[in-house]
Amino acid sequence: MLTLLVYASLLLHVLTFIAIRTLQSKVTYQESQHQEEKRAYEAMLGTILEELREENERLLNGKQSPKVPETPTVKEKNSQPDAIAETGEDKELESEYSPPQPAEAEDDLSMSNLGRVLQLADLGLSAAAIAKQLGMGKTEVELILLMKKNGEKNRNS
Question: Looking at the record, which segments are called Disordered (predicted)?
Fold first, then answer.
C-alpha cells in the first residue's frame, strides 16, 4: 500500500512538473510576442513624432502643409459693423441667408478618422492609399490598422 502511495505521489509530482514547464514556456512566448509588439508600436510612434516635428518646423518656417484644408470662417450676425446695422442692410442680409441643407453623406461627415480608416481598409485599400485619400500620415494609418489587427488577435485568443 505504501509503495502505491509513493508511486502515485511520484506520478503527481512528474505531471505537476510537466504542467509548470508548459506554462512557463507559454508565458515566455507571450512575453516575447509582447516585446515585439511593443517595439513595433514604439517604431510607429517614433515615425509619427518625427513627421509631426517636420510638419511643425515647416509651419514655423512659414510653409503651410498641403494636407491642411482651409475652412471658411462664418461671421455671426452680431459681429457685423454698426454702419450696416444703421442703414438697414442687415435685414437684406438676413433675407438672403438660408440655412445649410443636410448632405446625403452625413455619415461621412460625422464619422471619425478612425472609422473612415477602418472602413477604407475593409474595402481593401492599402495604407498609403487611405492616407492619401484622407489627408493623413501613412504611419498614422498604419498604426490604426496595427491596433485593429492586435485587437482582433487578442479577442480571438
Answer: 57-110
